[in-house]
Each structure stands twice: as C-alpha cells, then as structure tokens.
Design goal:
With about 325 residues, the chain is mainly α. About 70% of the residues lie in helices and about 5% in strands. InterPro entries: PigQ/GPI1.
C-alpha cells in the first residue's frame, strides 16, 4: 500500500480483523506486482493465492454449518452471556475474599476495603456492559466473514471487547502499584544518602537534614506496611490480564502460522512432483582417461513454520511486571 493508503487504513488496523483485511489487500497487490515484474506467477504468490482460496473455502464451510443450525448463533450468544455471568460471579467472590484475609495475609483494613469496594463497583458496571454487548455476538455469527482466519481475528477482537474492563482493572492496579514501587524506591535512596539526578539521569550522593530524614522515614514506613495490600490486588488482576493476553496471542499466532504455511508447495509436492528448486552436487569418483562423476540431486526444503512469531523479549517482559509497567498484547 502507498503512504496515503496506510494513513487512511491506520484506524482500521488497530483491530485484528481490520489488520487482516489490510494484509489481504497487500497480498493481492503483491501478486499483481510480481506478475508484472516476472511475467508469471511465482511460487510464493501461488502459496499466497492457494492459502487465501482454502481459507475462504473453510470460512464458507463454517458459515454453512452455522446457517444450517439456526439456533447455533443464539445458543453461542447465550452461552457466552452465561460464561460472562459466571466470570463476574467468580470475580465478585474473589474480590470479597481479598477484602478479608486472603491465604491468612493480614492486609490493611481501610485500604483493603476501599480498593475492594472500588473494584466491586466496576465489576457491576462490566456486567451491565456485557449484557448490552452480547446480542451482537449472535449477529456476528450469522454473518459470513469470508474466511476462517477472519473468524479467528473477529474472535480475538470480540474477546478484547468483552474483557475491556479486565484491562481497566489491571490498569488501575498497575498504576497504583507502579506509584507505590516508585515511592518506596525514592524513599529507599534517602536512607542510603543518595538521590536521583534527572538532568544527568543517574543517582548522586546527597546530604539530608534531620527533618527530611524524619519525614522520609514516616512516609517509607507507611508505604511499606500498605504495600502488601496493593501488591495482592496487582497480582490478581495481572494474572487475569495475562490470561486474556495469552488467549489473544494464541488466536493471532494461529493466523500468522496459517498465512506462512506453504499449502500450494505441499500439495504440489504430494500430488504433482516437487515445485521447489533444489541443488545439484557433483562428486569426482575417478580421474584420468575415464573421468567419472557422481551426480546427486538435493531436493529443496520447505519451511513449514515462520521464523518469527513476535512477542516481547522475556527479560523486558518480566522487568515490566516487577516494576509495574503496563503489559501490552504479546
């Protein structure tokens, strides 16, 4: 796509379904450019075309199965609503359990009660939100998205839409935890006689007076004793957020694997010879009057798995979790 086209479709690419549609348009343009450049359809373009055709046929089969069972969209919609109500009930029970003494931990009662009521209120809002959203599930299932991968992309977008409040819960807890960790780190430098220099972006030594040490000690003690309460809520909603991200990651990786899978190459190798150009190796067996060579044909290899499926570096990922930075889709 051109730069202007990319700017036009940029809002659409924010969702998985829109990004997949834009990729399909790129595939069509790439096939057209390849034919104009080489004068024929290359093997990579054949793989793209064959993959798209099979993808659409599988999507059509799925659409026919859905339309044959008229009650399936409504059943799936009500099943998703019941699942959401079950999740809401479990979340409410979990927050109420956290408001007590979870696993025998002695949490700060006022802060624990305030955080618990805050999240219970937002859970009730989430229940209302999902109740309004669930009729759209049946409407989407009655449509034919055109391909199986588009079904997967729509499922990923629907999962993100229905769990948006889990992201909100995680965002609230993450920002609170991040501020707490930052405050403890800044006050911890006070005891070591150092401070952060924002101009040089380093830690320098500094002399504090008695009043600063006294106030810093009080604040550090308060933050330290309240930290377990904040950390418990952060850990719970972090686990929920990671579960949603894992499900979305599986759906998106399935689409990537399908797009990179050489269906045409495998079909041609199975039913009509080997379309992949290999190599030829000559070995000298004898020299002199009778010169003999050994010819060995090495078939070309077929790459069945993409080289890179994406995902953040694990070191940065673990660091973001420890310091309380927002974890975005994997």
């Amino acid at each position: 796509m051109t730069a202007g086209t990319v700017n036009i479709f940029l809002p659409v690419q924010l969702c998985d379904a829109g990004s997949l549609i834009c990729k399909r348009l790129d595939d069509i343009i790439a096939v057209q450019d390849s034919v104009e450049q080489h004068g024929h359809i290359t093997l990579s373009c054949k793989n793209r075309i064959f993959s798209i055709v099979v993808d659409c046929l599988l999507g059509l089969c799925l659409a026919l199965a859905v339309h044959r069972h008229q009650g399936l969209p409504t059943g799936v919609s009500w099943a998703s609503l019941e699942w959401t109500e079950t999740v809401v009930q479990h979340l409410q029970d979990l927050v109420e359990w956290l408001m007590g003494a979870p696993a025998g931990l002695k949490l700060n009662a006022p802060l624990n009660s305030a955080l618990g009521r805050f999240f219970l209120y937002h859970i009730s809002l989430w229940e209302t939100y999902v109740g309004i959203l669930h009729p759209w599930v049946a409407a989407l299932l009655r449509l034919w998205p055109g391909s199986l991968t588009l079904h997967l992309a729509l499922a990923s977008d629907l999962l993100a839409l229905s769990t948006v409040h889990i992201y909100c819960f995680y965002g609230y807890a993450c920002r609170l935890y991040q501020g707490w960790v930052g405050g403890l780190g800044a006050l911890g430098r006070l005891f070591r006689g150092t401070k952060w220099n924002p101009l040089r972006e380093r830690v320098d030594s500094h002399r504090y007076d008695v009043d600063q040490m006294f106030v810093g000690t009080l604040l550090f003690t308060i933050l330290l004793f309240l930290f377990p309460t904040v950390a418990v809520y952060y850990a719970v909603f972090l686990a929920l957020r990671l579960a949603v991200l894992a499900a979305q990651g599986i759906l998106s990786r399935a689409v990537i694997v399908w797009d990179s899978f050489p269906l045409y190459t495998l079909a041609a190798r199975t039913f009509g010879g080997n379309p992949v150009v290999g190599d030829i190796n000559f070995d000298v067996l004898s020299s002199g009057r009778r010169f003999a060579l050994f010819l060995q044909v090495i078939p070309g290899s077929v790459k069945l798995w993409p080289d890179h499926l994406g995902g953040p570096p694990w070191k940065e990922f673990v660091t973001d979790i420890i310091v309380g930075r927002i974890v975005y889709p994997l």
